[in-house]
Specification:
With about 290 residues, the protein is α/β, with parallel strands linked by helices. It has ten helices and eleven strands. It binds ligand L34. The site of ligand L34 has 18 residues, from helix 2, strand 4 and helix 10.
Length: about 290
């Protein structure tokens, strides 16, 4: 069993991106500039955006976090998006999800210019990606693809079972792995809360991608011997053993599942750091539109 270190892969890719930025700057080209909009006080979102800001700094990007109050109206947020769309200095921006309930996430996503949509959530990017055209690929699915590549995990002809059908992970990763080429050429099944015989279906997976957002949902009896298990989940649960007062759990019951796997991603240190690095990749790509 090999533990896939997203932390290690992210560090390696960070160096590559940093080197490209240094080259840009040496040629007199302005650094890539990413803006993150953070609405409200969700603890996890603050951590994730903090990681994004730190990564920007490490690869040599300019970055800014626009912090807005929990009580921000949809109209106010759409105004900020409009000004970021128009600001020629800003190469790309994201609006961290989830948003407060009184704001329509879909409206917000559709308001982001597809050219600056480095999350790849805008329907134009989603459609382009699914059609196999050049597009911003959402960061978490892209990060998973990078992990499969780095560890040279065989995907051709494999049965990949994706548990979860969200727009930001389940659906795009299912699509990407069904495409021609590497990593891809998988036979893909998407499971969700209404799937009949879920356990039997997941147990067919050569590659299992757990992205349901329920802590320790995937148990050993659902996993075939030798499977590759990618754990996208990240849930905070109270703990008296940590300084922060909480610990992180994945969607996979790691201790019992890991011994059955050929490869498995841990939580933390698996997919999470790759989400950050793929956002950096997309931002660099956005900045290259100026070159
Ligand atoms: N707009 N909203 C937008 N874009 C995104 O790409 C995200 N996502 C998801 C939630 N909302 C979003 C993220 O940024 C999930 N996500 C994310 C980003 C980073 C990490 C996890 C999820 C991460 O850094 N995880 C670390 C541990 C984090 C901790 O200590 O809490 C890890 O090692 O897994």
């Amino acid at each position: 069993m090999t533990i896939i270190s997203g932390k290690e892969v992210a560090a390696k890719l960070k160096q590559d991106i940093g080197a490209e930025v240094a080259e840009m700057v040496a040629k007199g080209i302005r650094r890539p500039y990413l803006v993150a909009v953070l609405v409200g006080n969700d603890g996890a979102s603050q951590t994730y955006v903090g990681h994004k800001e730190k990564a920007c700094h490490e690869v040599g990007f300019e970055s800014k976090v626009v912090r807005m109050d929990e009580s921000t109206t949809e109209e106010e947020l759409l105004k900020v998006i409009d000004s970021l769309n128009k600001d020629p200095e800003v190469d790309g921006f994201i609006v961290q999800l989830p948003l407060p309930k009184h704001i329509s996430e879909q409206k917000v996503i559709e308001a982001i210019s597809p050219l600056k949509d480095v999350d790849g959530f805008n329907p134009e990017n989603v459609g382009r990606m699914i059609s196999g055209l050049d597009a911003y690929i959402p960061a978490t699915p892209d990060g998973i693809m990078e992990l499969l590549k780095y560890y040279q995990i065989e995907t051709k002809g494999k049965h990949c079972v994706v548990v979860g059908r969200s727009n930001i992970v389940g659906r795009p990763i299912a699509n990407l792995l069904s495409m021609k080429g590497y990593p891809g050429d998988c036979t893909v099944t998407i499971c969700h809360s209404r799937t009949a015989n879920l356990k039997e279906v997941v147990r067919q997976g050569d590659i299992v991608i757990a992205a349901i957002g329920q802590a320790e949902f995937v148990t050993a009896d659902m996993i075939k011997e030798g499977a590759v298990v990618i754990d996208v989940g990240i849930t905070r649960v109270p703990s008296d053993k940590t300084k922060s007062g909480f610990k992180l759990l994945g969607d996979v019951k790691y201790d019992e599942v890991a011994p059955k796997c050929s490869y498995i991603t841990p939580v933390p240190g698996g997919v999470g750091p790759m989400t950050i690095i793929s956002l950096m990749k997309n931002t660099l790509k956005a900045a290259k539109r100026r070159m």
